[in-house]
Design a protein that fits this description.
Blueprint lengths: L8 E5 L7 H8 L5 E4 L7 H11 L6 E4 L12 E7 L6 H14 L8 E8 L5 H5 L7 H14 L4 E5 L7 H8 L6 E5 L5 H8 L4 E4 L1 H5 L1 H11 L2
Parallel strand pairs: 1-2, 1-8, 2-3, 3-4, 4-5, 5-6, 6-7, 7-8
Helix pairs in contact: 7-9
The structure holds the ligand CC(C)=CCC/C(C)=C/CC/C(C)=C/CC/C(C)=C/CC/C(C)=C/CC/C(C)=C/CC/C(C)=C/COP(=O)(O)OP(=O)(O)O, SN-glycerol-1-phosphate and magnesium ion.
The site of SN-glycerol-1-phosphate (1GP) has 13 residues, from strand 8 and helix 8.
Cofactor: Mg(2+)
Keywords: Lipid biosynthesis, Lipid metabolism, Magnesium, Metal-binding, Phospholipid biosynthesis, Phospholipid metabolism, Transferase
Family: Belongs to the GGGP/HepGP synthase family. Group I subfamily.
Length: 227
């Protein structure tokens, strides 16, 4: 339906956070390639449905990044399924996903599902703590990327700095290892120049918190990477 290979910029909206209709309209009309709906905690079915019905008035593709089973609903274009590669607890790597497939395996439309191998690099972030991660060294993060590409053949490897701007040198080093697996970078992008810098290396950049903190600047990140 859509060509994800061409996506360079996505906004991530958190169903647990308040946003005005005005900002939501601007996000949907910004020219971004897609909108991801997702967050770490307090993601409810009500919150997800509210965002979905609003975004659906626009033509922008909309993806649910699944954080819990209770908030999964039909109606999205795609579903991204996180697998946290640097979690110390296999619950966040494979068990939660396995539980979902045991229960709903017969009704899943696999064409809509895309796995994301997450490498979470900010120890201060909620998601790092929630999923019991350990901080990888640069070499270890590169090794996860190699596994994502060559062993697991994942569609996406997600370098996640949630809430903090990350290290462009690491993102560059990781990008040099990936050919088929797409590299997603997210975390702390709040200006045009940060968006430009990370999109030199990542296939797709994700802008989340800046939407809530400084929507005017967040909107400018779209043009910065899509010139
Ligand atoms: C379409 C349909 C109705 C289908 C029915 C069948 C069905 C239910 C299919 C689902 C199949 C499936 C395999 C589901 C997986 C279920 C699941 C619970 C997987 C676990 C995912 C996981 C590891 C979650 C942990 C949290 C996490 C990594 C979330 C990702 C998003 C993320 C990193 C958010 C960061 O949050 P952020 O915004 O930075 O946080 P702040 O609030 O601090 O800003
Ligand atoms: O909220 P920020 O820090 O922009 O991060 C975006 C995204 O990677 C969060 O999952
Ligand atoms: Mg967020």
């Amino acid at each position: 339906m859509y060509n994800m290979d061409e996506w360079k910029h996505v906004f991530k909206l958190d169903p647990a956070k308040d946003i005005s209709d005005e900002v939501l309209d601007q996000i949907c009309e910004s020219g971004t390639d897609a909108i991801i709906v997702g967050g770490t905690d307090e993601v409810t079915l009500d919150g997800v449905l509210q965002l979905l019905s609003y975004i659906r008035r626009y033509s922008v593709p909309v993806i649910l990044e699944i954080s819990n089973l209770e908030s999964v609903t039909p109606g999205f274009d795609y579903y991204f399924v996180p697998m946290v590669l640097n979690s110390q607890n296999k619950k966040w790597l494979v068990d939660k996903q396995h539980e979902a497939v045991v229960e709903y395996g017969d009704v899943i439309n696999w064409e809509e599902m895309y796995a994301e191998g997450y490498c979470i690099m900010n120890p201060e972030s909620k998601v790092f703590q929630h999923t019991d991660c350990s901080l990888p060294t640069e070499d270890e993060a590169i090794a996860y990327a190699r596994m994502a590409e060559h062993l697991f053949r994942l569609p996406f490897y997600y370098v996640e700095y949630s809430g903090k701007y990350g290290d462009p040198n690491l993102v560059e080093a990781i990008s040099n290892q990936l050919s088929n697996t797409k590299l997603i970078y997210g975390g702390g992008i709040s200006t045009k120049s940060q968006a430009e810098e990370m999109s030199q290396f990542a296939d797709m950049i994700v802008v989340g918190n800046a939407i809530y903190e400084n929507p005017k600047e967040a909107l400018k990140t779209v043009k910065a990477v899509k010139k």
